[in-house]
Amino acid sequence: MSTYLIKNAQILGGDAQDILIRDGEIAAIGRELGEAAAQTVDAQGLIALPGLVDLHTHLREPGREDAETVESGTRAAARGGFTAVHAMANTHPVADTAGVVEQVWRLGAEAGYCDVQPVGAVTQGIEGRQLAELGAMADSAARVRVFSDDGHCVSDAVIMRRALEYVKAFDGVIAQHAQEPRLTEGAQLNEGVMSAKLGLRGWPAVAEEAIIARDCLLAAHVGSRLHVCHVSTAGSVEIIRWAKSKGWQVTAEVTPHHLLLDDTLAESYDPIYKVNPPLRTREDIAALRDALADGTIDCVATDHAPHSLETKETEWAEASMGMVGLETALSVVHEAMVETGLLDWAGVADRMSYRPAQIGRLAGHGRPLEAGAPANITLYDPDVRAAVDPANFASKSRNTPYAGLELPGRVIATFLRGRPTVLEGKLH
Amino acid sequence: MKRHLISAADLTRDDALLILDTAEELAQISSRSIKKLPTLRGRTVVNLFFEDSTRTRISFEAAAKRLSADVINFSAKGSSVSKGESLKDTALTLEAMGADGVVIRHGASGAPHRLATWVHGSVVNAGDGTHEHPTQALLDAFTMRRRLGDLEGRKITIVGDVLHSRVARSNVLLLHTLGADVTLVAPPTLFPIAVDTWPCQISYDLDAVLPKSDVVMMLRVQAERMNAAYFPTAREYSRRYGLDLARFGRMQEHAIVMHPGPMVRGMEIAAEVADSPRSTIVEQVANGVTTRMAVLYLLLGGSEPAIGGDQ
């Protein structure tokens, strides 16, 4: 295995140091390191972060390989600085058996661009009625620890309670897509000024908040771990803050797009802005940013949701929900959190690497950059600014809401256990 | 004026008055034995109707034909649309046929916005989902003006299912632009959240608003609302929000009653009220043609005088 010497990287934005990578691990960190046999990577002016970890992506394989495959999705992930991604279970067939999660896991290992950790469905067929074989998925080669019916809410309180209880046996966590189904029948856009004006069926904040409140109480009652997917409202933040103040085992994620974009974008009726949960208001965005800064929201997760072009070139109500996000996530967090002074780079490392790895129980990821740790490293140039050009994406899909928007920063290199998956800004 | 008419908010006060004044000129034509003008000769107007709405389609068709435009009716039923063709492909087909104007009625809010990104011709919104129906608002304003004169400061009450009504949205925007004082009346369940940000008053109490109104516009309540807990029963709705004879009797003498149609007699409006001389319901239909003529003329052929050399 090659030896790499990263020269003059600013670890978490600190003073320039060298990082020596050997045998997949960080061998040494210090000034003026020398290693004759090593390939040198000039990281002058670049920030070194621990490899990013995403708790929430949709890689679409098996079933919708026209929109994304594990290979194309993990190439996109590597380009975005990620070394591990969780792949949601709402594939076709659904990842609700050991067989399917092992298939996804193997596809990830074969592609080799980043670790793919499958998420198992909570219920069979993500239909919300009967528990899937959670233990079999946990015991499989894929070692599933995160379970989610994402895309659907586990709305039945009894099923949710049982799922929370059951996964305690193997230190699992239920990642809930909090969406009360009756309150969101046919819902299209955050219910408020914009939905009223545009005549789009409202998607009330309470539909998310009511489920989060119930689930926090259930998690407390049975002493289990709850993870809340894609928190999108100020009210949800308040509830999670309260649950954490009680010492309950509740964690939460926010997407990059909910940190930056608001529902006024729907005025164009361009479904590129249609997403679940919907874009909310500036007030919600401010609350989400503050919550990510103070740790109430533990991490950023992309909810990378590739869709083929024709499913977005339609009327709003007909269009698919979701946005790709892996290749823009770090830049959006930079814009929304770092440029605003809410997080420093150590904070970014915590919210995009340490904590998501901890929630997902990924032992080999989310470790501080120090000697002896697996060499999962992202090198990021914070000083460039460029308009987002979807034509450059590695993802098979182009449904980004940021096309043409100028964002800061660029991932220059990504190392997965000492092997570069991205070097000089290009897939390696 | 903008190239498309998609929302009543696209119209400035001057735009709106120009359309209404032009419609007034064109109305004179309608009383002649030969109703046709050569103004849009050689232009093609496509009526693209994804929802059944015979009355609106006929109104636009008559308007375009009286201006001598070629009219193509494209209804979703029996066409490639019902076989799953996308709106975009339909738009590109129309574009290839050289449509100068596309009149679109669609069940999805925002469909005219999307269409406008794919065609070069002018797009006229003939009703999109629960969003807007700007030509209905224009014909309503035209009708009010003919009965009551200038709308500045006039008290206009719109009653019914505001939440799902494209007519209410367009009327609020246009009437506000024209300086009228609009009050929406409905049970709280049939207002959108954030309706307080609209440029109008809201009330849950029809009886309180009625005696002060110059215009009372009743909106249709669709049957599918009955089973969705918006109100307990049709009878209760009718008792609280229907315009029956007793309420009609408490209106000011000059006040008029409007309804965009189709109406449910006995539900939101009593038959005697609908048929009274102070009801403009039939007039609204006639005024629809002249108002839509004005819109098509101004969007598609506005450089020539509305009433050309034949005077």
**Tally of separate helices of chain A:** 11
Helix coverage percent of residues of chain A? Answer: 25-40%
Note the gap between the termini of chain A: 15 Å
Question: What's the shape of chain B?
Answer: globular
Q: Give the mean pLDDT of chain B.
A: 92
Report the C-alpha radius of gyration of chain B, rounded: 19 Å
Chain oligomer state = heterodimer
How much of the residues of chain A is beta strand, in percent? Answer: 15-25%
Class from secondary-structure proportions of chain A: alpha/beta
Regions of chain B with pLDDT < 50 over 5+ consecutive residues? none
Alpha carbon gyration radius of chain A: 20 Å
Percent helix of chain B: 25-40%
Largest sheet of chain A: 9 strands, mixed
What does the secondary structure layout of this molecule look like, with pairings?
The complex is a heterodimer of chains A (428) and B (311).
Chain A: E1 4-11, E2 16-22, E3 25-30, E4 39-42, E5 47-50, E6 52-57, H1 70-79, E7 82-87, H2 98-111, E8 115-118, H3 134-139, E9 146-147, H4 157-166, E10 173-176, E11 189-190, H5 193-198, E12 202-203, H6 205-222, E13 226-228, H7 234-245, E14 250-254, H8 256-260, H9 282-294, E15 299-300, H10 329-338, H11 345-360, E16 377-387, E17 406-416, E18 419-423, E19 426-427
Parallel strand pairs in A: 1-4, 1-5, 6-7, 7-8, 9-10, 10-13, 11-12, 13-14, 14-15
Antiparallel strand pairs in A: 1-2, 2-3, 5-16, 16-17, 17-18, 18-19
Helix pairs in contact in A: 1-2, 4-6, 6-7, 7-9
Chain B: H1 13-30, E1 44-49, H2 54-66, E2 70-75, H3 87-96, E3 101-106, H4 111-116, E4 122-128, H5 134-148, E5 155-159, H6 166-177, E6 181-185, E7 201-203, H7 206-209, E8 215-218, H8 234-241, H9 245-249, E9 256-258, H10 271-274, H11 281-300
Parallel strand pairs in B: 1-2, 1-3, 3-4, 5-6, 5-8, 6-7, 8-9
